[in-house]
Design goal:
Shape of chain A: globular
Oligomer: homodimer
Strand order of the largest sheet of chain A: 1-2
Strand content of chain A: under 5%
Structural class of chain A: mainly alpha
Number of strands of chain A: 2
CATH superfamily of chain A: Farnesyl Diphosphate Synthase
CATH topology of chain A: Farnesyl Diphosphate Synthase
Number of domains of chain A: 1
Helix content of chain A: over 70%
Distance between the termini of chain A: 35 Å
CATH class of chain A: Mainly Alpha
Number of helices of chain A: 14
Chain lengths: 324, 324
């Protein structure tokens, strides 16, 4: 019997479903409250309702909220109450803001990605895409405004989040969303249609396109709880592994699932002649690779020195074993 | 003789041309240095060169840089060297980052605004627009990545800008760019084509569409220099007035100038049946209104309690008396 198998599983006694229920309740309520038309403090100007409607349509009532869950699980893992109850309340508020901010960035990327000049998709989360419902200009502006709102959520001026935390969160999110993160990955993706990518280039594309924001989610949560440098390092490895695993599983589901289950158009990548893990490694090879990435993620948690990693471990398992 | 006319003019002995030359040199060099493909610290991933090329095309070698100049003039006005030389160097670095960040937001808004689903313009600053040169998807992503890069510039992780300053700058910029600022104004503008707006609604649209970012520029500069609350209040009034004046003059130039002088398509607003100050107040009425706004801006500077407002005063004058 090895040491590893003798150790208790990461999530012994942990009820993911219940944990998720609590977190998602907070996230949905916060998004509902924060994606609204409020008068600007200085000018009194309000966001036009049409724009807010498109933003809310893009964000509310849909989506797995994986990124917010990773933020809050990263927060739980790194959180200790050494600062006392006040510090706990303040850092948890910061984590909830971070969770929503990451989701807004994710939502904006989907809105723009679905537009006719990009993937030209009409179905998302089982609903008409934003440009189908609000027009292309409406979708373009809603996406732009969602990105700005993400940074607005991270910088409340009511003293509820410490400036040091605000600055760190904005920096992490900006880097993950930008040209060497998500937007860069989208650009590589566009340029790669019809081309053969080797595993290294496929991995680099996904590290940017999907991985950057997933990794950033975990780190933002940990940042709110003032995690140590060594813990952050372990969480980066965890985040990188599940970021990649997420995409591998996405590619697997694109060929093994149907549109109704996925809530989006299945078989699309193959139709668009996009390189995928399945086209590169085959179905079985991709499944094995996803399992290896899960092991990597769990092993990073083992080495993190953090005690409360049950939610992160359970989420990693969920990412790899999901069916949609 | 009134006190006002007896007082020395705001810019007595001030050489705007020379001041601008120094500031623009720094801004152009900084943009050249900061809008590049650098490997991400964590993943080693680089921004794809195509994307960076489109971003650089949108930002470099063009534009009046009015917003960066306002940031740096706001900084000059509020700056005092009470903190000693080190604090001065640090705050000036912050102001230069803020100047470039605002310009990136402005540049991204032009890229998206020119796209076929919005204004469908092919000429900007005398050059082909970004989507004409890089395709629609390329323009969409370049704009998205420019917005993220703005927040990245504001949050360096090298200790060169204090976290308190970073947080304040991100908050100001996010609010000015978002749904109750620039993006909101664009949405109102789109919805107003072919409709008659009264003066109040036209003003509100422009306060958001153009005014928010111009006002924000002045405040971001002042924030870097830790301006007092009363000084910030006066600068808000200044920024609001010249923000509006800028748009009034834009509307005037749209009917009195030609495409070659403007570097963009003239007569476009009338062609698109958009409400303008000229259609509302007539040409002469608009010119008088612009002058009144200039007086408002200068009078706010008088009351700001700040000594070094020569650059702000000269820029206000330039905004109102420009020919393109």
């Amino acid at each position: 019997m090895t040491l590893r198998s003798a150790a208790p599983p990461h999530n012994a006694g942990f009820d993911l479903k219940q944990w998720m229920q609590v977190q998602l309740h907070d996230v949905e309520r916060a998004l509902e409250e924060w994606v609204v038309s409020k008068p600007d403090v200085a000018t009194g100007c309000r966001a036009p309702q049409d724009l807010i409607n498109a933003m809310r349509y893009a964000v509310l009532d849909g989506g797995k909220r994986l990124r917010p869950l990773l933020v809050l699980a990263g927060y739980d893992a790194a959180q200790n109450q050494a600062g006392g109850q006040d510090a706990f309340v303040q850092s948890r508020v910061a984590a909830l803001r971070a969770a929503c901010a990451v989701e807004l960035i994710h939502a904006y990327s989907l809105v723009h990605d679905d537009m006719p000049c990009m993937d030209n998709d009409v179905l998302r989360r089982g609903k008409a895409t934003v440009h189908v419902k609000f027009g292309e200009a409406g979708a373009l502006l809603a996406g732009d405004a969602l990105q700005a709102l993400a940074f607005e959520l991270l910088t409340p001026d009511d003293g509820s989040v410490a400036p040091l935390t605000q600055a760190g969160l904005c920096g992490l999110l900006a880097r993950a969303a930008g040209s060497s993160g998500m937007a860069g990955g989208q650009a590589i993706d566009l340029a790669s249609v019809g081309r053969v990518l080797d595993e290294q280039h496929l991995r680099e594309m996904h590290q940017q396109k999907t991985g950057a924001l997933l990794r950033c989610s975990v780190l933002m949560g940990a940042h709110c709880a003032s995690a140590s440098a060594s813990a952050l390092h372990a969480l980066e490895i965890y985040g990188g592994a599940i970021g990649l695993a997420f995409q591998v599983v996405d590619d697997i589901l694109d060929v093994t699932s149907d549109s109704a289950t996925l809530g989006k158009t299945a078989g699309k990548d193959a139709d668009n002649d996009k390189p995928t893990y399945v086209s590169l490694m085959g179905l079985q090879g991709s499944q094995q690779y996803a399992k290896r990435l899960l092991d990597q993620a769990l092993s990073a948690l083992d080495q993190s020195g953090l005690n409360n990693t049950a939610a992160l471990a359970a989420l990693a398992d969920m990412v790899v074993n999901r069916t949609h």
